[in-house]
Amino acid sequence: MRKLLFLSFIIVASISLQASDDVADLAEKKCGECHLMGLLTKEKIDNMKAPPYWAMSKKVKLEFQNRAEMIDFIVDYTLNPTEDKMLFSPMTKKRFGLMPSQKGKVTEDEIRKIAEYFLNK
Ligand code: HEC
Asked: Residue 46 is part of a domain; what is its CATH number?
């Protein structure tokens, strides 16, 4: 019985590890081109096209009280960014411009998963 419990623990643990790896890949593929992710290199920092993802999730966490609102904001902004929704300062817009809509490049479901992942980091 003990052995069985231990085995199922290992299986569950490896499945959830696998799942978070998949989200990390997805996030890097869909958002990493602009929002700094993964290994930081001087080249990446010099060519930054947007604030790093952790700066973005920090802003979102400061602005909203609960997780559902945070995730809804990230989903909505990613598909329909506008200046009046923007949480970053006008300085950010001056430096990087407004985020281009990612409609058609990423699905709502994918953004929800990515948003969870960003907020957990
Ligand atoms: C082509 C470049 C680009 C890609 C790809 C991109 N972003 Fe952005 N993003 C930006 C820029 C530039 C900003 C800063 C300006 C702004 O806030 O609109 C930004 C800001 C944001 C913000 C904060 C908005 C605010 O000001 O309140 C969120 C949330 C966000 N991005 C989510 C995402 C997610 C999620 C993905 C991946 C699915 C993604 N972005 C992919 C360029 C990009």
From this structure: 1.10.760
Dist. CA 15 → ligand 1 center (Å)? 30
Over residues 100-115, the pLDDT tens digits come to 999 999 999 999 999 9
Provide the domain limits for residue 101.
Answer: 2-120
With a pLDDT cut of 90, the percent of the chain lying above it is 76
**Burial class, 31, CB count within 10 angstroms (exposed 0-12 / middle 13-18 / buried 19+):** buried
- Note the pTM of the prediction, 2 decimals: 0.88
* Ligand 1 contacts CB of residue 70 (under 6 A): no
Helix (H, G, I), strand (E, B) or coil at 81: coil
**Substitution site in 29, 34, 60, 101 for ligand 1 pocket (most atoms within 8 Å of beta carbon):** 34
Total domains in the chain come to 1
